[in-house]
Design a protein that fits this description.
- The chain is α+β, with helices and mostly antiparallel strands.
- The protein has 12 helices and 11 strands.
- It has a 6-stranded mixed β-sheet.
- Helix 1 runs antiparallel to helix 4 and helix 6 crosses helix 7.
- The longest helix is centred in the middle third of the chain and has 19 residues.
- It is globular and about 70 Å long.
Amino acid sequence: MSDPLSQVIELLRPRAVFAKTIEGAGRWAVRYTEFGQPGFCAMLEGRCRLAVDGEAPRLLETGDFVLLPATPAFTLSSLDAPPPRVLDPRSAGDAPALRHGRRDGPPDVRQFGGYFAFAAPDAALLVSLLPRVIHVRGVPRLAELVRLLGDEAARDAVGRTPILERLVEILLIEALRAVPGAAAGPGLLRGLADPRIAVALRRIHADAGRAWTAAALAREAGMSRSAFFERFTRTVGVRPMEYLLAWRMAVAKDLLRGGGIRIDDVARRTGYGSPATFSTAFSRHVGAPPGRFRRAARAAAR
């Protein structure tokens, strides 16, 4: 059966950009401005407080892992915090470590964290399907993956880039599947945690080219059309056919960027009976016809 979560991560095409050790000692607080790129941190030692704008503050402890798929503005601080110092995450510098608070003596808090980029130009669409804040506790595999990521990022060895990209992909999947789906907000994780809705999501991802209707997906889920429509919309956050269209367009863009496949084959693989019908739907959704999108993608790649 198709794995929607892995497919979303694969289309996002994450690549490591920046990671370093972050320390804190005494009383300290830093406020990071909104960044937009996915950020992460693994707590190696100590405790601190994380306050993401629009979310309840969280206590981070040794062994915790946090992932912010779009990194809104947030404040990181000691438990007894002074007024925060404002930082721009884009200007963190190239030093292998960053220290907050008291400059001398051993740190009270030690993290390994940073951010990476999604290579997909339509990443925002797929990120919208993920939780805003992912906070995982008690999963040693994540801490080990972050350690491996940090070791590889610090090396200047042959094959470094593809190894970093694969490690980040694995890290993302491990973090996302460690989140209890029922505790996540509306989106892909909550949908996959619902046995009925998960069946429909897997059918969509397994065969995006099939002529799906809401009634057909409801039958796959073993529900009436009205009950399925309401439950899917409430659980995933979008209506079934909106999700289907978004996934088809994400697949189409990935095929067009890759080249080597004719537009009529892209149309067939994404459920459109003719290239003309596909071109109209693609232009309406993306803002450019398939041929122009492919040429622009190739030019950007060069």
